[in-house]
Amino acid sequence: MGSPWAHLHWPKSLCSCLHWAGRWSHRSGCAVPGPHQHLPSAPASHFSQGCGWARPGRLSGTDRSAFSPEQEASHRFALPAGGAEGAAKQESFVLSTAGTDQVKGVLTLQGDALCQADVNLKMPRSNQLLHFAFREDKQWKLQQIQDARNHVNQAIYLLMKRDVNYHFKTGSEVLKLMDAVMLQLSRARNRLTTPATLTLPEIASSGLTRMFAPALPPDILVNFYINLNKLCLTIYQLHVLQPSTTKNFKPAGGSILHNPGAMFEFGNQRYEVSHVHKVECVVPWLNDALVFFTVSLQLCQQLKDKISVFSSYWNYKPY
């Protein structure tokens, strides 16, 4: 009897999600596999009667066109298409926070690059308005989006690196591949859901401080990061701790968000955070990406579960 894995195909839903992942990857500013690159044969025509996700025979050209990134994007990705050849489209988002107008601004995002930030900060007590914006020749790359995109591309590569005529020989081979794909998808999701923990000296020494015109005052720190489907801006107001202060100096460790009272030392000077302002804006396609990661991981797990059942069936040897 031939191998039960010889003529089996990926579920339509998984193909669709992976092609859509490629479209999301393009949205975040990276080239993706073309619509005519397809997955190799995979499990399970011998069980097609019991499983609607499997069909015998090869995918026809008509079937394959249904999985194209453009069509999936139109159904799943409610952003205006920028075209495969063009750069990612610039999108502007208004910063806001509930219950205060201390900070107002607009952020302009182009793929994984923050290409403009225009921010107004109303200083506490004095109500003085401080305005700062990116220099026109500067862009700030959002590492979280870059990393998530790279993990998505790696997941797609793992599935597409085999020839379209490749036949899997064992169920364990498919399970091993699914584990590798799921690892990349989990890492991609985690990069968007878990911002980096930074110390205040790390924020102070970041190249972000040199992005603005006019230059930021020495008592202001800023940090941008992704948290789920939101692009967040945190502004720290500082005051200098004099050498004669009676406060017990205790440097703060790494954190996503530092609280007032946090202390740190930078450039032979000690500081304390006096005020913290956090504002954010929702980026719709980041929400779409998170949905994709969740659905794709579920589909991969479903495929693993079915392959395990099929493997048990084929490995069963009655007495």
Automatic annotation (TrEMBL):
- Signal peptide, first to last residue: none
Q: Organism's domain of life?
A: Eukaryota
One record GO biological process: brain development
Kindly report the protein's main subcellular placement as a broad class.
Answer: cytoplasm
Indicate where this protein resides in the cell.
Cytoplasmic vesicle, Secretory vesicle, Synaptic vesicle
**InterPro entries in the cross-refs:** RAVE2/Rogdi
- One Gene Ontology term, aspect cellular component: RAVE complex
Similarity annotation: Belongs to the rogdi family.
Q: What is this protein called?
A: Protein rogdi homolog
Which organism is this entry from?
Anas platyrhynchos platyrhynchos (Northern mallard)
